[in-house]
Every structure is written in C-alpha cells, then in structure tokens.
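Section 3.1: Structural characterization of target chains.
Under the original work plan, the team committed to producing a structural model for every single-chain target entering the pipeline before any wet-lab resources were allocated. The record below documents one such target. The sequence was received from the expression subgroup and is listed exactly as submitted; it comprises 804 residues.
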Amino acid sequence: MKRPVFCVALAYALGEVIGLYTRTVGEIGIVSAMLVCVGIFVRKKKQGKSACVLGLGIGLGMLGAFLRIPQDLREKPDIRQENGYDIITYATGGETQGKPVICAGILTDRQGETWTMRVLDGADVHGDILLRGVQGEHTIAEIVQVTGTYDTFEHVRNPGGFQSRSYYLARNISGYYYAPQVTTITVNQWEILGLPRYLYYQGKRILYELRIRADCQIAKLLPEEQASLVSGILLGEKSRIDAELKTLYQMGGIAHILAISGLHISLLGGLLFRLMRRARVPIPVAGIITIAGLLLYGMMTGMSLATMRAIWMMVIFLVAQMFGKSYDMPTAMGVALFFMLLCNPVRILDAGMQLSYMAIAGVSLGNYGMKRLHKKTGFRRFQKRYPLRFRVVQSLFYSVTLQGMMLPVVAKTYYEIPVYAGLLNLIVVPGMTVVVAGSWFGLLVSIGTISLGRFVMLPVGWMLQGYTWLCERTLELPWNTLVTGEIRGWQIGMWYGGIACTLVLLRTKTRNKLRDFVYKHTGRFWRKREVVRYTVCTILISMLLQGAGQALCVWQQRTEAIYFLDVGQGDGILIRSPDGRNIVIDGGSTSQSKCGTYTLLPALRSQGMTEIDCWFVTHTDEDHISGLKELLLQGKLTQIKVRTVVFSAYVFQDAALAELEAMIRAAGITIVWMREGDVIGDDTFTLTCLHPTAEYRAKDKNAASLALAYHSDTFDMLFTGDMDADAVADMDIQQDYDCIKLPHHGSKYSYVEGVYAHADYGLISCGYNNRYGHPHTEVLQGLAQEGTKVLRTDEMGAVIFRSR
C-alpha cells in the first residue's frame, strides 16, 4: 500500500464522517458488522492486510466520533409527516438558558473585547470559556474570578444559521459569560500552576504584548483600512477589519488571504531554516530552532486550525530534512489530519479546517497531475521551448485542481460559489508573498524609523487597495456568483466520488485491467483506440456524478415550502411557490440584533432564494421590518435582489413608513399597494389580501396589519401580522386552513375564540422568555380546547412546511 500513513488518516476521517450519521448504538453496530464481514472476505486476498488496516482506521474513527462528538451535534432536524407535506423543526427545545456561576481561571487570549479563559476552579464549568464584554484592564496570564451568567452555545435554529456550538467546541471552548464581573486574584501563580504551566502562560503573556505592540505599530504605517488587513494577515487580529470588507473579500473568493496558514508558515519557516543553514548551523539544531519559532508564532497569532495544520506539515518537512528523508505532502497532510482529529474529533465539522485541508488536497492533486504530464515528451518539450506559457498553463492547472477540491466545501459553507474566484486568485495569491514579506520587513524597519517603515509599506498598501478594487469590479461582472443553496452530504460525496473514480481509472494498472476486460468481452470494433474511449468514459462518469448532484440540488430548490424563521421577538416568513417564485412576509426582530444579517440573509442564501419576487410588509413595527432595512442598507453586498415590496393600501401612516418607503425607492425597488381581494399568483398558487378593508377603521398600526391567505394544491395558510382581536373578528374566517400564523406573537389581546378551530396548526412566532409573556397562557389554553396543535419558534426553532 502506497502512502500508508495518508491512507490510514483518510480512513480515520472517513470513519468520523460515518460516525456522525450513526446516532444510535444499533446503527454503529450494523456498520461495524459490515466492516468485519468485509475484513473476513478479503483477509486472504493479495491486498487483504491493507484492507484490514483501513477497515480498522474507519472503525476507530467511527468510535471516536460516537464517543467524543456530543450527541446533539449529530442530531438532524425533526421531521413530522402529514398528508402531502412534511413539517420540519430545527430545535428540540428552547434557547439555551444561562445560570449564575462563579469560577476562577487564567486569561489565555484576547480578540477585540472578548477574552478566552482556562478554568482552574469551577463547579459546573470546565476547559476554556469566553468572556464577552469585559470591563476594566486585564492581561494574559492573569488569574481572575468571574461572576455572572454562564451559558453554552446555541444549536442552529434556522436554515443556513451559523454553527456556533460546533465552531467553538472545535476550538475546545465550551461556553461563555456575557458582561461578567471580573476580579483579579493576587496569588502565587508558581505554586498554583506549577513551573511548566507557569512558564507557558508567562510566555503567552509576552507574545500577546508583542502582538499588541506590533498591531499598534502597523496602525502608524498604513491607513486604517489597509492597517486592519495587514494586522489580520500577519497577527491574526481580525477584530478591526470592517465587516463589509470581509464580506467583499468572501464574495470575491479571496477571504482565505486573511487567514494565517501555509503561506505564512512556509515563508517564515523556510526563511529561518535557510538563514541558519547559511550561518553553518547544523541541520538538527536549525530544524529544532525553526520548529520552536513556528510554535511561538502560532501561539502569538492565536493558533487557528489552519495555522495548526500548516505548522504540523512544516514540522514534518523539517524533521524530514533533519533525518535526510524526502518530504511527501500527502503523508504530511495525513499525519496532521490524524493527530488533529485524535485530539478533538469535533474539528471535522469545522468549515475552516475543511477548507484548509481541501486546499492542500487540491495542491497535492495538482502535483500528481503535473508529475504525470511530465512523463510526456511533448509536454517537456513545451516547457523547455515556451517557459512563460508553461508557467501560465501550470498556474491554470493548479487553479483548476484547487478550486475543484474546495468547491463543495465553499458551497456548503457559504451557499454560493464565486464564479471568478479562480481567475482572481491567479492574480492575488502570487502577490501575497510580496504582501507578507513586505509587511514583515516594513514592520521591522519601522522599529528604527517610522518614515522608512511607511515607505517600505507603500507597495503593500497599494496591493491591498488593488485587491479590494478587483473584488469590487468582480461583483459588477455578470453571473459573478453561482448560488447553490444548501448542499447535502450525499451531494458532496457524489462530487468527490467522481474525482476519486477519475483518479482510480487514470492508474495504469486499472487501465490495463479495463483494456483486458474490453478485449475479453467485446468485439473488434470496441477494441480500437482504447485510451481515447477510456478518457471519454472517465470524463462522462465524472460529469454524470458531479452534474447529478448539482441538478438534484437545483431541483430541491424548486420544491414548494413555507419557512417560519426563528427571529426571536418578531416575524420572518419565506415562501417558495410551486412555480419557483420567492416571497417574503415581514422580516424583523426586537430581540435579535442584526436579524437581517445573521438570520434572514443566511436563510435566503441557503435556500437559493436570491431573487425575491414580492416582499410583503404587514405593518411598520420594528420587529417586522428591521431585517429588510438591514438588507437595503447593505445593497449589492447581500447579492439579494428584491423586485417588489408590497404594502397594504390602508397601511398606518407614520415616520417609520416614510423612512422605509424612502429606502425602498432609493434602492430602485417597485412599491405596490394592495387592497382587499387583490390576488398575486397563477394556476399553481394564490396569495390573496383579506384585510384591512376600505370600510375598516384601524385604531393603530397593528390593527391595520396586512392579512394574507395562501392557497395551493398542497397548502392553505393564513398570515395575520400583528392584527388585534377586532381586526381578526372583522375578517370572519370560515375556511379551513392547514396552519394559521397567530397574530401578535400569541397575544391574548389578538385572540378570538372559534377562529383557530378551522386550522390544524397554529404557529406562534415569539422570542424565548420574552418580556411580554408571549404566548399568553389564555391563548395556549384556547388552542388546546379548539383542538389546534401549536408550533412555537421559541421552542422549536424555525418551522418549515415542505411539500413532498
């Protein structure tokens, strides 16, 4: 077996992936039995030992995932089957509820206003935790007592939501305090920590102070925007980078340059090692000093998962140099992957780690392809005659392999693919060597004289401005983004399966076996031009597997569905009609900050809803429009196009309406005023305005809420905004509905007896433990008496009605 370490590491990672989907002892037992049966079958075969070793690796990976990845991270959204449709809920309980806890620990890191603390003494708190919104001056390696409310990170409660729990667990952080009281404890740290830990934390303190000084020095050398980027690139200090600039780089496909990874580590490690070798330092000593320097740099910058992977691989390279062995990139990647997952299996769920390893896999795949091409005489001749053209072809080839390996993970993480990212990276990545090296040189020179440091930093600032300009121009190009929506695990498997099949069929032994099979079982016609037929078949198989995954993804986005998002104390409803139209009703919250950025926008992207045909505003309370206002302010950066915004013709006139109307017109969006009886739809669905009528006199903006009835072959639903009891009674509901969205978050002042007996389900959108007491007990009792089942976003997260 070639590259056994890499193969075992890959098998272990595959075992963890399988373990994520085996949620019970019975399921893991079935998979284990299947592996044992395969091992028994192949034990006497030529490759039997290799197969058994790989099977053992898969088994250990499954066991590690089953035992060490928390059960809640392996749970999937609950699906309730009804006649013709499914009801999907994202959470099994309410939001996490904090509890008062006093604990003591040592501060280990800081990012912006958030500190990381290692707990030394805590009854129910262990490991590393975050301290958010800390007041007062503190420093690394300071022992403190923390008093406040301790909470764990929430599960995903909406489609496309940020996986905060798995993100922080992958970094060994179990929970957080918000705005706690932090008191410094004066003790003898040597006695409490012991000598090794004392020296370790004192070293972290020195490195942290060095990072702060370097950050302040960079701020003196460049304008604010470029200085924040350089601090992120060199020091891992990203708290000062503008959020819109981060989004711009992400949408351009070059956000990876802000992460400290292989480029930084290889430059720093290679420079240190070569300088010491030039100084005639023995290879073992040079290697050990370089490894120590890389570890210190990683500690100073926060040791992200990408940095950790890069340091692991660089250490293996240096060890190979020390022992006079050749370096193999796939083997080094396998060792790094195995030990990182062995230390913390949750890391396999982290998008940053997935992207980091897929990038290295893409480079390894490019190396493999170039090695095969170099065996061709014509290719070597081309390289010798046209070196410049060869460089261009080589760069394009590596760009294709890199993007091919990273593409599914990018789509899974961001729900979209930057179409021009490959071309943009051909310009950006080569220049990053100049940016990183120039930034370090300018920073060192500025210690002696600021003016010389600024002069050295000028090209760095110009290049970063150029990168920003390129991203802005890219967004102006047509079809700059391919929205994929939510990618499933099996679709990713099909993509990588297609690549794996291509690589297997490219092997000479496999090709010879295929040729022998063709000769044995077919006639003369099929025995001609074997290589051409083989190549064509390989391409077709890859395209079939990869295309099928994407086609099924697009088909899924056309499925009729209605999404009641968990926006806290507010409303946010998404509708995908049977003919593929995208409709939004309201979208705002008073309990969630930046509801549009962190809830509405990810949900829309994850469902492929980037073009909104109609956005209905029932009324202009902040808990119904704050998300819409955020998206309007962000403009093109959201990549969400709203065609029409619909108001009631009798909407309550106030300053909030005037402000929102001005924002909509400034964005160039059409405004439609809807009256009772007006219908939007076609033969597949209708959305009808039921209220308010021309005769109805609303006493406030809640009473004037727009009421809409949705009808299709699958669903009959009623959306009521924040109507009060008089307005609900005025509608005189007689028709039966699958679901009625209760008005005003389940308020008793909007409840009318007998109305909800016409519905199978009553949906309540409200915040967990909100200060209004919604939903009121009288409403819940009334729904129970009428036989209406209750669905609550505060307890269940997002609720999705999806046709089969």
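The domain at 99-205 is CATH 2.40.50 (OB fold (Dihydrolipoamide Acetyltransferase, E2P)).
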